[in-house]
Specification:
Elements (H helix, E strand, L loop, with lengths): L1 H13 L6 H12 L7 H13 L3 H13 L4 H17 L3 H8 L9 H14 L3 H12 L7 H9 L10
Helix pairs in contact: 1-2, 2-3, 3-4, 3-5, 4-5, 5-6, 5-7, 6-7, 7-8, 8-9
Protein name: Tetratricopeptide repeat protein
Pfam family, one: TPR_5
Organism: Glutamicibacter ectropisis
Length: about 160
């Protein structure tokens, strides 16, 4: 049942582009029919739809409820990233940074989280740390210069401070 439901959720998101908000709300409501409204997966999908529709303020509470209700695995990490992105868009940069720092380096979504972390750091006024985060995340995906990029990223100094 869970695999079937997950495939339906995946199809919902894959086919969501170009549909109006009312159609998407109706389809998600049908998809979630009969499920416990407090199920963290339900809360996550509701929050995700608000986000998708540009309703960031309405997405925050269901994301937090999904996380507090025990959302687990990759969906938990997706929720952390999506909530952090939402909070960044709402000007809550430090909350976003805190959430993104919870994604472990062993996660398949770590590089994704690092991209959003770099943006949140930049918005919070931490430009050097933002560049360090972005370059460090990028380095393993380069063809020849991963070691050099990683070293340079770690050596970044605070702007205006000369290095010896």
């Amino acid at each position: 049942m869970d695999e079937f439901w997950e495939s339906q959720v995946e199809a919902f998101w894959k086919n969501g582009e170009g549909k109006d908000a009312e159609q998407l709300r109706k389809e998600l409501e049908q998809l979630l029919a009969g499920m416990d409204p407090k199920d963290p997966r339900v809360l996550f999908e509701i929050a995700s739809l608000h986000d998708f529709l540009g309703e960031e303020e309405q997405a925050v509470v269901p994301y937090q409820q999904a996380l507090d209700s025990g959302l687990s695995g990759q969906k938990r990490e997706e929720a952390l990233i999506q909530l952090a992105s939402t909070q960044r868009n709402l000007g809550q940069f430090h909350q976003a940074i805190g959430l993104l720092q919870q994604i472990p380096s062993t996660s398949e979504l770590h590089a994704d989280a690092q991209g959003f972390l770099a943006l949140a750091l930049l918005d919070a006024g931490h430009s050097t740390e933002a560049v360090r985060t972005a370059v460090t995340a990028l380095a393993p995906h380069t063809r020849l210069y991963a070691r050099a990029l990683t070293a340079y990223a770690q050596d970044l100094s605070v702007p205006g401070v000369a290095q010896a």
